[in-house]
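Action item from last meeting closed. Structure (63 res):
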């Protein structure tokens, strides 16, 4: 499973970085930068919560 961000849909709310700081950081404009690679098994639940909480629905999980 991977975390991705829709750069067009993202509105830079920053909630993803608050909920999933292990995999998401914010750039200088407040937009998310996702760590490359697979989501570690111990972070899958947190990644799902972060994707569900995104106000713009721009954070997604892909298999």
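Sequence:
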């Amino acid at each position: 499973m991977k975390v991705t961000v829709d750069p067009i849909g993202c509105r830079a709310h920053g909630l993803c970085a608050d909920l999933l700081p292990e995999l998401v950081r914010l750039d200088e404009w407040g937009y998310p930068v996702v760590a490359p690679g697979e989501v570690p098994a111990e972070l899958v639940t947190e990644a799902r919560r972060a994707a569900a909480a995104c106000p713009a629905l721009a954070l997604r999980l892909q298999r």
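Note appended to the action item: The two ends are 4 Å apart (CA to CA).
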